[in-house]
Amino acid sequence: MPQQIHVEAYERLTARGHENIRALHRTTFELTKDSDVAIQGDCILGVKLDRAVADLSQEFRSAIKRDTAIVIIVLEVENLSDVVLARGSSRLTLEDHRRVVVRRSRFVGGETLAIESNKAARDIDRRLIEKLRSRDAEIVVHIYVLDLCDVSTPTGLKGINLVKKL
């Protein structure tokens, strides 16, 4: 029987596409509340973000600010999705009111949601990015926070079902 791992916290964000989205950055990806993006903004995946890191719930903020936090980010555009794995940190401040940034590095700024990500903008499924080059496109971002202490099993994540705590 599969083991169940409880999701410590969950947030759902939405943003819109834009014709200038290129998503070529090697170390980060970003979503912004800004309405427009310049062609130089090669880390941006979406504009008109509904909430930035400062707007996230207190429950979520507490969960992701643990050094044992594992972050699973599911990016969805229409019928396509991509999954990003990252870590939380006790160093996160989550104080930016405009942006959400996920980083491959351990650098933390006020806009940083997660660090040590397995993907940056250039690693996101290119079919998904192509759809985001339209202002009509909507990206839905599901962010799950798990506690590493709960995930430590002999079999790893194989055979584990994610269940949100109510």
Automatic annotation (TrEMBL):
**What PANTHER family would the database entry show?**
DUF371 DOMAIN-CONTAINING PROTEIN, DUF371 FAMILY PROTEIN
What residues form the membrane-spanning segments?
none
What is the name listed in the Swiss-Prot or TrEMBL entry for this protein?
DUF371 domain-containing protein
Q: In which organism is this protein found?
A: Ignisphaera aggregans
Q: Which Pfam families match?
A: DUF371 (PF04027)
